[in-house]
Amino acid sequence: MYRDRLAKIILLAILFPFIVYIFGSCVLNYIPPTESYKKTPKQLEELFNEKMTQYGMSLDIDSGEYLYGNSWSKTVPIVCKDGSKISCIYYPTGKGSNSLIDYLEFEQELSGEANETVYLEPLLAFVMDEFAPGMTENKDETFEPNMSKSYNDALLVCDDFVKGNEKEMSIYVSPEGDHFFAVTFNRKTDEKTTLSVRFHLWNR
């Protein structure tokens, strides 16, 4: 009897740290992140469909398939009422529902028509509004004046890029006082011109 009780106590002493670790991990996975720049794909979908409806855009995060290269990625077509060809590419920390978006990219293939609307600027504004809301408090100031652009300056850079011919431009924006993320504009000129804006939101 004494040996059985001692064996149970020893077993519990060995298993207790693992039980605490597993329980703690479950709790941490359940608690949503508080940082504005950390969002799940589902949160992105909800925000995008709420805010970008004014531009006739919507997306379904469940469309498209995950691909694995150096990390997971998924390309989701954006439905545009005016027929624009725009896609959303995101790189999550995993395939689970609680995975967070590490990189986010919007890409538009241009038709070449004279009156075509380029949506890079409103897409940039959407990301700053939702992933860096601190920037909207004063759109002419930034948390890191020596490193990053203000909200309005970032939009001006985007406008210059769209109207210009540069292949690539990069800037930084600050969602919070102790954090900044990179924004990269890219132009591909093959059979058709493709413009994109890519956000490196945070490091794991």
Major sheet: size, sense and barrel closure?
8 strands, antiparallel
| Radius of gyration using CA atoms only | 22 Å
Q: Supply the number of helical segments.
A: 4
Instruction: Report helical residue fraction.
Output: 25-40%
> Unreliable segments (pLDDT under 50, ≥5 consecutive)?
23-30
Give a count of the beta strands, DSSP E runs of length 2 or more: 8
Amino-to-carboxy terminus distance:
51 Å
Q: Work out the count of structural domains.
A: 2
Proportion of residues in extended strands: 25-35%
Shape: globular
SS-derived structural category: alpha+beta
Q: How confident overall, as mean pLDDT?
A: 85
Q: How do the SSEs run, as a string of H and E?
A: HHEEEEEHHEEE
Note down, in words, how this protein is organized:
This protein has helices spanning 2-30, 41-51, 120-131, 151-163; strands at residues 57-59, 66-68, 72-80, 85-92, 101-109, 168-176, 179-189, 193-200. It is of the alpha+beta class and 204 residues long. It folds into 2 domains: 1-31; 41-200, no CATH class. Helix 3 (120-131) packs antiparallel against helix 4.
